[in-house]
Write a structure and sequence with these properties.
The structure is a homodimer of 297-residue chains. Chain A has 297 residues and is an alpha/beta fold. In chain A, 43% of the residues lie in helices and 15% in strands. Chain A is built from 13 helices and seven strands. The first copy, chain A, has helices at residues 59-70, 78-83, 85-93, 106-127, 131-136, 140-144, 158-168, 172-175, 178-181, 197-210, 224-238, 254-264, 281-290, and strands at 8-17, 32-41, 48-54, 187-191, 214-218, 243-247, 271-273. In chain A, the strands form two sheets. Chain A has a four-stranded parallel beta sheet with strand order 4-5-6-7, with helices on one face. Chain A has a three-stranded antiparallel beta sheet with strand order 1-2-3. In chain A, strand 2 and strand 3 form a beta hairpin. In chain A, helix 1 (59-70) packs across helix 4 (106-127) and helix 10 (197-210) packs parallel to helix 11 (224-238). The longest helix of chain A has 22 residues, at 106-127. The A-B interface holds A 27-30, 32, 54-58, 60-62, 64-65, 68, 94-102, 105-110, 150-151, 153-154, 253-255, 276-277, 279-283 and B 27-30, 32, 54-58, 60-62, 64-65, 68, 94-102, 105-110, 150-151, 153-154, 253-255, 276-277, 279-283.
Chain lengths: 297, 297
């Protein structure tokens, strides 16, 4: 019996203008957010939508990649597709020609993320449940089948992943208390890079009133004193019990990251995000070793 | 005084059909090579050309990225551009919006490489010398100024790079003997993945007649016995003094790479290329530790 078949894959290039410095950080100053959107058409009113973020320029490249990668989904029924979605993901990424442009990198990576989001969206809509519910109702085996663990089986085999999840099954119900209490979020908009001190203080006050207890500040200024002054401002405005995080958006060299992370310690950060080149795994490990975390990490 | 100004940046999407399994490897089976080409137009007959390779599909994405990135080169004079080309490269890659799609990844990375090639080509043509000559005639300081060393200054500072090159200056003339003797190349076309044994043997014989003494074989078969049989064939056909290399094109998991690299040792490989995920730096380090190299590496 047919479930719900993907008949067509469309993309859409949607761009939105930001205002007054919203979205600014140490390396991105454009005032645009854009989404490369995937639409999985089924010939019914149930369709799957996925998005991925870019900063505008080049968004159409991601859209083109979505349409090219998406052709291999056409004709699939959604339940068949999701049954062993890890393999589907691998074969999508491993397209014999397009993988040269990726496979999990840049434009192709972004396109894959938009497509994957759309597949999950269509699946949940087909089943008529929220995606979180759908995922919670899967067995550990079904959940692991959604993932592509290729290349990491020396660290985590399929069997080990299933075991990890199985071990946590007995306490799952207790964790569902967040359905009532809510899941704590953080406010990432209080401290964009170009915001002045007054605005940051105002934003934190408003966010505190809304119930937020965690706040992220953009750092990575060429003027390190500015970063430190604003970090202190956020800590003071948010209070000693708040979680505060700093995001350098890859701006620092390793040496600079060591200096700045050390200097920022006094404000008890919950994390420092993208302190240096995001792909330099060893630099991150060395950074952790040099900068003793003072917070709950 | 004006030198030579870049007035327009064009791209071209050029695709070529391969025949009879040429170009095949363990993960790429398409029979097409394509080039995303950059053309730096100057309004004179002296133009700069650069290329980057793809496997066809998606090549137009790289071409679009070339044109978008290339706009920032317009109006530059070639000598000004190359004087501090390391900074130019960094600012090209760090385009405030497009870096989100890269910066040194996938489509954007490929586009950058094509553009960079074209800049060097235009520079050498403007000076009326081959590029190798131009580079050899630069001082260590000028050479290092061509490079973007950001993010690696904890391993190699600009000063250290200049010192490395300066130390080698006294022996440079001796190394120019390769202008007479030639630089040894290797034949990468003797053993494409889909070639049968007879064809590989024939190819090696022909390449030996042409003077080649180094040969690369595509491995990474799901049938490991096939890899080993073909590796032995290449060693036997090439002779004990030849250099032979194997290329797995990322096909192996880490565990598989350990097994296969160990098994291939008996054929004394000069290198094994892309034994596993190319970005897994730690896996490569662990692989070297586990598989003791028998060759000159």
């Amino acid at each position: 019996m047919k479930t719900l078949e993907i008949k067509r894959v469309e993309s859409a290039d949607r761009r939105f203008t930001l205002h007054d410095g919203a979205g600014s950080d140490a390396v991105h100053s454009v005032e645009q957010y854009a989404f490369a959107c995937t639409r999985l058409c089924t010939g019914t009113s149930v369709e799957g939508f996925g998005i991925t973020l870019t900063l505008g320029q080049g968004n159409q490249l991601v859209c083109e990649a979505i349409e090219q990668l998406g052709t291999s989904l056409i004709g699939f029924e959604i339940e068949d597709l999701m049954r062993d979605f890890g393999s589907v993901m691998r074969s999508l990424a491993d397209d014999s020609a397009l993988r040269w442009l990726g496979p999990h990198k840049g434009v192709l990576h972004l396109a894959l993320s938009s497509i994957v989001n759309a597949c999950y969206d269509l699946w949940a809509k087909y089943r008529g449940v929220p995606l979180w519910r759908l995922l919670l109702d899967l067995t550990p085996e079904q959940l692991v089948n959604l993932l592509d663990l290729s290349y990491i089986d020396d660290e985590l085999t399929v069997g080990q992943a299933i075991e990890l999840l199985s071990d946590l099954l007995p306490t799952r119900a207790a964790r569902e208390s967040i359905l009532k209490s809510g899941y704590p979020g953080y406010d990432t908009s209080i401290g964009w890079f170009s915001y002045d001190d007054t605005r940051i203080r105002d934003n934190i006050r408003k966010a505190l009133d809304l119930g937020f207890r965690a706040f992220k500040l953009k750092v990575g200024s060429s003027d390190s004193a500015r970063d430190l002054r604003r970090a202190e401002l956020v800590r003071n405005a948010a209070g000693p019990d708040a979680k505060i995080m700093f995001d350098a958006n890859q701006q620092w060299s390793f040496r600079c990251a060591v200096q700045m992370c050390s200097a920022l310690q006094q404000f008890d950060p919950y994390w420092v995000e993208e302190p240096t080149h995001p792909d330099d795994v060893n630099a991150h490990a060395r950074l952790v070793a040099r900068v003793v975390p003072s917070g709950s990490l």
